Amino acid sequence: MASENRVVLASRAMSGDETRVTKISALDLRSQRSTECCLVQIHGPELGKKYLIDDSELTIGRDQHNHIVVDLDNVSRRHARVLGRGGKMLVEDLGSTNGTYLNDQEVLQAQPLRSGDLIKVGGSIFKFLDGDNIETQYHETIYTLTIADGLTGINNKRFFLEYLEREMGRSSRYQRTLTLMIFDIDHFKQINDVHGHLAGDYVLRELAQSIKRLVRREQCFARYGGEEFAVVMPEDGPDKARLFAEKIRKLIAEKAFVYDEKEIPVTISIGVAEMASDMTEPTHFIKVADANLYKAKKTGRNRVVG
Known about the structure:
single chain; Tumour Suppressor Smad4; 20 strands; Alpha-Beta Plaits; alpha+beta; five-stranded mixed sheet; six-stranded antiparallel sheet; about 300 residues
């Protein structure tokens, strides 16, 4: 690609009108930048993969000729590109069908990138890293991926299970109450079918961020899988947990989810369970909360059971 991307500079000679033409390669353009940069896929088929940006541009798309190939139906053949210009790195949409998003804002023209920015291309998300210590940033990003969900930004299933097992041991040891809430989005498949998977991703992300603001620091809020979420509440009894569950249910039912100028009705069903003395494994605890979630679904959805 470097040979295909050259900048031509023209200058007047001091002694006359003769024009001097100098060709500057992509390598010369890179020398204007004192730091390295890369993209890390934090959500999508190649989770955790790092792509160094060591050329004048890096293209992303479904076609095999792109620098980054994302084989997803909602990714265009040539979807987006990251390029260097004037000593800065920019992201640009290449006329894709579903658009390119920078920190959840659609990219309508080339936008400058800062370290930590998130670029969404179809069903994949890339984190842009820039600076003298991108190796350190990369390893921090990979560590975060082991405990956090790349799409929603909240804790992932692995972190949730470890946290729940630890709190169950603490609850049993000190005879303190522990409650678990499991909920999922009603008719989520229908949201994907009617509005598309990008709209479904938007709903998951917005819902997670809305609820995250209500969850206390000592509690654990996680994406359990797909459209299913969990909240672990140490030292909260069943009555207090149920009130909190109702607060969350009402928040989501009343919230306006608007994607592509269309409002999407969203409700959740919630199952709540209190840890019992015979529960020794997280799977036992989850099974009880899950059974109450199933009852909430069977009795009409958009409700709390347990």
